[in-house]
Amino acid sequence: MRLLVTGGAGFIGANFVHYTLREHPEHTITVLDALTYAGNEASLAPVRDRIEFVHGSVADAALVDELVGRSDAVVHFAAESHNDNSLNDPSPFLTTNIIGTYTILEAVRKHGVRLHHISTDEVYGDLELDDPKKFTDQTPYNPSSPYSSTKAGSDLLVRAWVRSFGITATISNCSNNYGPYQHIEKFIPRQITNVLAGLRPKLYGKGENVRDWIHVDDHNSAVHAILEKGRSGETYLIGSDGEKNNREVLSLILELLGQPGDAYDHVVDRAGHDLRYAIDASKLRDELGWKPRFTDFRDGLAATVDWYRENESWWGPLKQQVEAKYAAQGQ
Ligand code: NAD
Ligand code: TDX
């Protein structure tokens, strides 16, 4: 297939490009990426001569129309993705996540091209710590932040275009990803690079919030399973039973980096901070036969720590600016 990968210079998109070239070399790839603060062409440098890279926005209708018109499928990762940023300035979240997805939908509708829309478990809101339930594709939408509400809006647009216009599209809602090439504004890479830069890690509030961690390659293998076998109009939840609270994750990072267990600071909590996410991925496992490969979080995290240790040239230039922004928020 000729794949158009939006947001391919971001964390999950870049890993998707690497994974696809490694595991499914029969596909050709065009990346469309606006190279916002979160996009980094260096993440694609090792495969630059094997893909086409187009610098532009998913909200540019003429460009999107041209690129979709010469593709067999679109895998739509491009988004503004950071909750904290959405609390400071929601505007780009509306443009990229809502208008950008609408623009993609109109092009796939016109050209009859298959769409896979990448979304998040945050559209379902949050769970109590002791709630035995997990999110399924039947859980009602209840997003909390400007980020998650724009992702929820984009999912609903995809569903409406399937029902009203008969486009061929699937949606996946995945839990928190970790792995190489993740922007250092995010929790795990922020704490790893804090230690590597001689700064103290920063935990929001009491650190009791639970996230359901999955390795980025497991997310991307699931996306391939859906591209190959998923049914149009269906939503698949992606997760690998990786629930941990933020304190536990930070303890493991400190241990892997040889730091004392109390070598971190508590900082101001995130406004409206979701308490817990948990995914029931049985539909994906049972219907499509998918299973995760990275079942040992400690091993996956250790490899991620090593990647940041070995790739300071990738993150070093960003560090001061990211931390200055957090410091201004008391975080
Ligand atoms: P990211 O912020 O690392 O990357 C986003 C990429 O999109 C960047 O390369 C950026 O330049 C690009 N982009 C932003 N606006 C654009 C625009 N208007 N046009 C074209 N490109 C644009 O994000 P990520 O963590 O890789 O997330 C990718 C997708 O996966 C998002 O849709 C996100 O909602 C979803 N998701 C992320 C996670 C996670 O844990 N990171 C979990 C579930 C779902
Ligand atoms: O410095 C920090 N300290 C801290 O305690 C940061 C940056 C975060 N946190 C906490 C907040 C969350 O409880 O860690 C947890 C994870 O935070 P983020 O990495 O910002 O992720 P989250 O808000 O959970 O959202 C992520 O997963 C779902 C992605 O950024 C989203 O794009 C995805 O949809």
TrEMBL record:
Cofactors: NAD(+)
Single GO MF descriptor: dTDP-glucose 4,6-dehydratase activity
Domain NAD(P)-binding: 4-301
Keywords: Lyase, NAD
Organism domain of life: Bacteria
One Pfam family of this chain: GDP_Man_Dehyd
Reaction(s) catalysed by this chain's protein: dTDP-alpha-D-glucose = dTDP-4-dehydro-6-deoxy-alpha-D-glucose + H2O
InterPro entries tied to this protein: dTDP_Gluc_deHydtase (IPR005888), NAD(P)-bd_dom (IPR016040), NAD(P)-bd_dom_sf (IPR036291)
EC main group: lyase
EC number: 4.2.1.46
NCBIfam families found in the cross-reference section: dTDP_gluc_dehyt
Family from the record: Belongs to the NAD(P)-dependent epimerase/dehydratase family. dTDP-glucose dehydratase subfamily.
PANTHER family on file: DTDP-D-GLUCOSE 4,6-DEHYDRATASE-RELATED
Protein name: dTDP-glucose 4,6-dehydratase
Organism field: Blastococcus brunescens
